[in-house]
Design brief:
The protein has one domain: 3-Layer(aba) Sandwich (Rossmann fold). By secondary structure, it is of the alpha/beta class. The chain contains ten helices and seven strands.
Length: about 270
């Protein structure tokens, strides 16, 4: 039997309050450094999911609203579902001006929505925190008969020199939590979610520019990194500043990604 890498990952955070508390101290760094998503992704969602203006969707694990904002900009009604109060508050502060925006506490396993209520469920950088079986059943409950799910990631480019150097620092300070996350990034749970008819993976190049403080924020926004003020955090900061000086051009570094999306309908129990 394949190891449940998601359960192993989540168990490492239980002493600190579990999934709902992971990013409470990371919000400022998250807002300052995490990348958005390319226009090509949103066009693919529109075409593949047959979305009309005003379509209703749920962004699960919405965090500070990076993906939510892109959906709102394209005329959809969006519920941002986020279990972490601090992260959800950051999204509210940025997005409350949009009439089509709603937010609520909730999780992939317990969505505060009626049956057959939404056209699309998105989850960006969040699938690894899900209890896959419970999330699959809950998503099917709230989706309309033709509704679909888009699981989305901004993947670091493994061969990019900046990512290689940054990865060495993250490995040094991330400990067992980083090891567990890296193992889970292989996404072996996707067949459990989508079934035998696993949708094709779509991908697009993407990049994000950061100054020195932004690069530090990118590293410290990771769930497994120590606090900035701790002794390991201060040591990591020094190494990150050295890394920035090594790769910077005109006061910035370019962080390259491959945006990946798997779009389809979760399998039903009868499949």
């Amino acid at each position: 039997m394949t190891a449940d890498t998601g359960a192993q990952l989540r168990s490492l955070y239980e002493k600190e309050g579990g999934v709902t508390q992971i990013f409470s101290a990371k919000v400022t760094d998250y807002v300052a450094s995490r990348p958005d998503y390319p226009a090509a992704l949103f066009e693919a969602l529109r075409v593949q999911c047959h979305l009309q203006p005003g379509a209703t969707m749920v962004d699960v694990g919405a965090g500070t609203g990076l993906l939510t904002k892109g959906l709102l900009e394209r005329g959809y009604e969006v519920w941002a579902i986020e279990p972490n109060v601090a992260m959800r508050s950051a999204a509210d502060q940025d997005l409350a001006c949009w009439p089509a925006y709603r937010s609520a506490a909730g999780s992939a396993e317990s969505l505060p929505l009626a049956d057959s209520a939404v056209d699309l469920i998105t989850a960006a950088q969040a699938f690894h925190w899900f209890d896959v079986e419970r999330a699959r059943c809950e998503f099917l409950r709230v989706l309309r008969p033709q509704g679909q799910v888009a699981l989305i990631w901004n993947d670091r480019l493994a061969s990019d020199p900046l990512h290689l150097a940054l990865g060495e620092i993250l490995d040094q300070y991330g400990g067992s939590r980083r090891d567990a996350l890296v193992k889970h990034e292989e996404r072996g749970d996707l067949p459990r979610f989508f079934g035998d008819r696993l949708p094709a993976e779509l991908s697009w190049p993407h990049e994000h520019w950061l100054n020195e403080e932004g690069l530090l924020s990118l590293a410290f926004s990771r769930s497994y990194m120590p606090g900035r003020d701790s002794a390991p955090g201060q040591q990591a900061s020094q190494q990150l500043r050295q890394l920035f000086r090594r790769f910077a051009s005109e006061g910035r570094v370019v962080v390259r990604y491959k945006t990946v999306a798997t779009i389809g309908r979760p399998s039903s129990a009868s499949e």
